[in-house]
Write a structure and sequence with these properties.
2 domains, 5-stranded parallel β-sheet, inorganic pyrophosphatase (n-terminal core)
Length: about 325
């Protein structure tokens, strides 16, 4: 018997919500050939256009959206050839684009709303389908899927910044400290108690050291300015933008934080807890997106400009006699 083929494109590989969403799909479809690929917001259009699904196969897009008309055309072509499209997202930018007429595709499933993070939207939709199937004599959800519920709860809590589920924030940090290919694999390997895999345990031990290093980098590069009555703080970081902004936000009222992540080469936007500035609108103006309290974007040429600053600083010394 031929195994069903599912293609999954999700936000990641260091996003807890995106990785948990993809793993929920895989753990639910036990025995299927699940081909998961993770992409940043800047990569997703290219990654989706590279999906070569065949008639009768499924494409799941979770915790991420696309903006390029060429991507929309490719997805429409897949659907017309008999590929089932499933899209789950919770970002405000995607919701607004959908309201304005974008994403007019023949989805088999489309769940785009912001009451929960994408992983929880995916998990609860699959759970409810399994319950319906079971009531009519079909198979219930696999045990491995049910066992994954605590991870989904932590992903939802962490991604929406609720901070009510013990261990949620720490798990998000663990994924960021893991090698890119290992986070999804570890989530597939988790047993009934969801104890750390060996790779997760090693990453957990590295988190404190990496956070300390990031604090030093951020503090050394921190810049402040006033823009239209709002304090704008910018700095460099290396994968821990949310944690740095959260720490700074406790002592910096009415502040927007713009942190350039040298690891992902993208900007992460955060705000102090007392501020209602809509970061998703800011990010969208720069070609990105996200949530009102947490968003991101990529500025074309910014990494090169940083390199130019380094070159400008070194060039005068290199031109002195004896430099060769």
């Amino acid at each position: 018997m031929t195994r069903p083929v599912l293609h999954v494109v999700s936000h990641g590989p260091h996003c807890l919500d995106g990785v948990a969403a993809a793993a929920a799909v895989a753990r639910f479809h036990e025995g299927a050939d699940v081909r998961a690929v993770f992409a940043s917001n800047q990569e997703v259009d290219r990654v989706l256009r590279e999906v070569d699904a065949r008639p009768g196969e499924d494409l799941w897009v979770t915790d991420i959206s696309w903006t390029d008309p060429a991507t929309e055309a490719h997805l429409r072509d897949l659907a017309e050839r008999g590929v089932r499209l499933h899209w789950f997202d919770h970002h405000k930018t995607a919701i607004e684009r959908l309201k304005n007429g974008a994403y007019a595709l023949p989805f088999t499933t489309r769940v785009v709303r912001d009451d929960f993070a994408a992983s929880r939207l995916v998990y609860e939709w699959l759970r409810d389908r399994a319950a319906e199937r079971s009531r009519t004599g079909g198979e219930p959800a696999p045990a491995r899927f049910a066992d994954f519920a605590p991870i989904v709860a932590m992903a939802d809590d962490n991604d929406r910044w609720v901070h009510a589920v013990p261990g949620a924030r720490e798990l998000g940090l663990v994924l960021r400290a893991m090698p890119a290919a290992e986070s999804y694999r570890s989530f597939l390997e988790l047993g009934p108690g969801c104890e750390d895999t060996a790779t997760m345990a090693a990453a957990r031990a590295r988190v404190k050291e990496e956070l300390d290093r990031n604090r030093r980098l951020a503090e050394a590069t921190r810049q402040e300015r006033e823009v239209a009555g709002v304090r704008l703080v910018s700095a460099l970081c290396d994968g821990y933008a949310g944690e740095i902004a959260d720490e700074w936000g406790r002592s910096s009222p009415r502040t927007v934080f713009a942190l350039f992540d040298v690891r992902s080469r993208a900007l992460s936007f955060r705000r102090s807890p007392d501020h209602d500035f809509d970061l998703s609108a800011l990010a969208e103006r720069l070609g990105g997106g996200g949530h009102p309290a947490a968003a991101g974007a990529t500025l074309a040429g910014l990494p090169a400009r940083l390199g130019e600053v380094v070159g400008d600083a070194v060039a005068p010394a290199a031109a002195l006699p004896g430099g060769r």
